[in-house]
Amino acid sequence: MADAGKPPLKLLLCAPRGFCAGVVRAIDTVERALALYGPPVYVRHEIVHNRFVVDSLRAKGAVFVEDLDEIPDTAAPVVFSAHGVPKAVPEEAARRHLFVLDATCPLVTKVHREAELHFRRGREVVLIGHAGHPEVIGTTGQLPAGAVHLVQSVAEAAAFTPKNPDRLAYVTQTTLALDDTAEIVALLARRFPAIVGPHKEDICYATTNRQEAVKRVAGAVDALIVVGAPNSSNSQRLREVAERSGCPRAVLIQRAADIDWAVFGAIVRLGLTAGASAPEVLVEEIIDAFAERYAVDLAVIAAAGEEVFFALPRVLRDRQAAQ
After folding, report:
1. Which of 62, 81, 102, 145: disulfide with 57, CB 3.0–4.6 Å?
2. What is the rounded CA–CA span in Å between residue 157 and residue 241?
């Protein structure tokens, strides 16, 4: 038998995992633009936080930049990443007459609109999120400087002092840990009973479903691997959720070559998931790496089904339909 002599390993594969609808839309936006217009296609910031995806698109002709001033005067498409951008960015693009394709996740755009609506109604806006993350920069940048108050923790929520506690609202980053965010929201609600929240939770369906699957697996395994990038917020949250849900060891890795076999040498039950910007090919690569060393018995642990689909930017759909 092929597995003779290999130690047994029960591998619990979380579902759902990997790409969400917003990530699929963003990647497809770049690939469709390359197909319709040819290279180069400029992309402001990593289209999603995954080196494998970025390198694959770069090889096809995508040019990644951090600021619009890195882009020459051109008729080539300029794509905004899934994380969203401050208002000043599309304003600058319009001033330069750049051909923009906005790949911002629609669920991030929802948060932008909520923040704007609260501000127009005269409310101070609290943003629960992580400083420096592109999504937080984008949401903060929808409003004038100083209009958004970033709260990152329960301690910061306890210290926050609004100008008027009766005119207060909150929005959240879409990729946060559900339990941590619930604690912060609960504290804000106790301190400021009049605070207004979103009609529908800002943490996106994909974040929620992936965290729930990890919770179901975490207590039943010796270790859990999250496939994802270090700068991926939703991937980092999956690792944290696993640890808090009873997993003895949870690690974030980008690909099979990063596996520290000294850590995984004596396990008999392994959990495996992937952040929303990690492609399935990397999950399969890791399964194959374990199958070379173990007699793998694979089982899928499902938390929810996902049927969400986001259409590409209209200009791409219209251009393709015309061909």
Report:
1. 62
2. 21
